[in-house]
Amino acid sequence: MxxxxxxxxxxVLAILVASFLHYTLPQHDVVRITNTYNRLTTVGENWMFYAxxxxxxxxxxxTRDIRFxxxxxEDDTVIVYRNEDTGWVWPPYFKYDSSNLQAEATNLESTxxxxxxxxxxxxxxxxPFLSIYPNAVSVKVVSGPxxxxxxxxxxIILIALAFIIFMVRRMWLQFxxxxxxxxxxxxxxxADAARDSARGFxxxxxxxxxxxxxxx
Amino acid sequence: xxxxxxxxxxGFVALTITYVLVSIYSRSVRREKLEKSYDSGEATQDIPxxxxxxxxxxxxxxxxxxxxxxxxxxxxxxxxxxxVALAATVYLVNYQ
Lengths: 216, 96
Description:
The complex is a heterodimer.
Chain A: H1 2-24, E1 27-42, E2 63-72, E3 78-83, H2 98-107, E4 118-123, E5 135-141, H3 152-210
Antiparallel strand pairs in A: 1-2, 1-4, 2-3, 4-5
Chain B: H1 2-40, H2 55-68, H3 70-74, H4 77-94
Helix pairs in contact in B: 1-2
């Protein structure tokens, strides 16, 4: 029972961490851009999936003008990106050129008949029922719809995170080995000494006598 | 504009905490290594017995060498690497 609960907690934690990373790390889509526009958007309960209000997009209001980029994949499924500054807040993309990005995206608009394929770097998810959109970070013209590239940035970040976790663990173990365990030993030794002296004269004689008793 | 100042401030505080913790860790690892190499007798086996240092002064001398060494200075990378990564991100995201 407890084992199962423990496993359940671990699995939930792993899913949370994995989805957090999947949301935050950059990914590439090869698409053609079909439309770019901005529209007044009311950000309500899904605020977590939009830029923080103090990055320059808006101040102190729930409704703001947000830039969007519409695009289509080769198989004609569609995707809508938002294009918001992240500024100097989370997630750490330090993006403040969303106007330029919008202009680049508009410049790369193409039709189904004469497609111009671009790789859109983005983070985030498209969930229609939450009205959330991935945030486009950059666009790049690529050779064709079959273009694919290894996601180096995410690879490096994941390796760096693994290294940090490894180092934190080693530092923690070192701290226990060198600082906490000796302190506990010292406390134990003091406790033993205290117990010995608390026994008093007869107590110690009793202890000595008991060493003569035959072991059962 | 206030955002970048806030990031710089919190980043500096966080990196300073990291720097201090890494320094303590690195020093502790070095001390443990010195103690073990003294205890195994390998480090002092070529020194004649009459001038052999005791454990405490052996470790103290080793720690002094460590404080001046390259490894100690490499801990400054705790500040350098995140700053370079931030600058690279800003460049790649906004100026490419």
